[in-house]
Write a structure and sequence with these properties.
216 residues; mainly beta; twelve-stranded antiparallel sheet; elongated
């Protein structure tokens, strides 16, 4: 019988951003080794925009302790949820989940600690960004393989059409979305990772079924 367990983001989630200088280039903003700021407040933003002659990129990072998963769990599906608080702009954009190698405490140096291979086959469109409920992504095989059974699972959330694709946004297109982080009081709106799995049954030395290494 499959078991579904929901794990919530904890300390270490948040965003790292690069706020370019007026008249600066997209390449400088997108490819910078370090962000110009990072933060963890109850409400954080996700964007890649060019507004008032300034390029800005915000990248979200999530960290979830999934060490409670059984070592012999076979994961069949997983879903990431991020509570939406609002959005702005009308440019057609999409948002997806990707890998993360960020540290347990975010720093400006984690700006590039995110991958470009999507962990979900279906992104969330800007026009479909939900306010007042969870935006969700069903993990694909690559995302499921990244779930740790012994420690912390990390992933990032990025704007796909401009940031991940490395395509400069148009002038004065002020697109953004924002949502809740673990800094929100209580867990009712925290980012989450829901994992569905079964535990493999093995035959013990006596021919019976072995659970957790015990044979009967």
């Amino acid at each position: 019988m499959p078991t579904t367990t929901t794990f919530y983001s904890g300390p270490g989630d948040g965003q790292v951003n690069y706020l370019g200088a007026g008249g600066g280039t997209w390449a400088t903003t997108h490819n910078a080794a370090n962000g110009t700021a990072n933060g963890i407040s109850a409400d954080e933003y996700l964007m890649a925009r060019y507004f008032s002659t300034v390029y800005t990129v915000y990248r979200m990072f999530q960290i979830v302790d999934t060490s409670a998963l059984p070592d012999d769990a076979v994961i069949s599906s997983a879903t990431v949820g991020f509570w939406g608080l609002g959005s702005g702009g009308t440019d057609p954009r999409h948002y997806n989940i990707y890998s993360s190698t960020a540290g347990d405490t975010l720093a400006n140096s984690d700006y590039q600690s995110c991958g470009t291979t999507a962990f979900s086959d279906t992104s969330v469109a800007h026009s479909a960004w939900t306010t007042g409920s969870y935006n969700t992504w069903a993990m694909n095989a690559t995302g499921i393989a990244a779930i740790s059974k012994t420690g912390k699972t990390k992933f990032s959330i990025r704007e796909a059409d401009k940031d991940v694709a490395n395509t400069a946004p148009a002038v004065d297109v002020n697109n953004y979305v924002h949502g809740q982080t673990s800094a929100y009081t209580g867990a009712t709106r925290d980012p989450y990772l829901s994992v569905t799995y079964t535990v493999v049954k093995r035959r013990g030395p006596g021919g019976g079924v072995a659970y957790g290494g015990m044979g009967y």
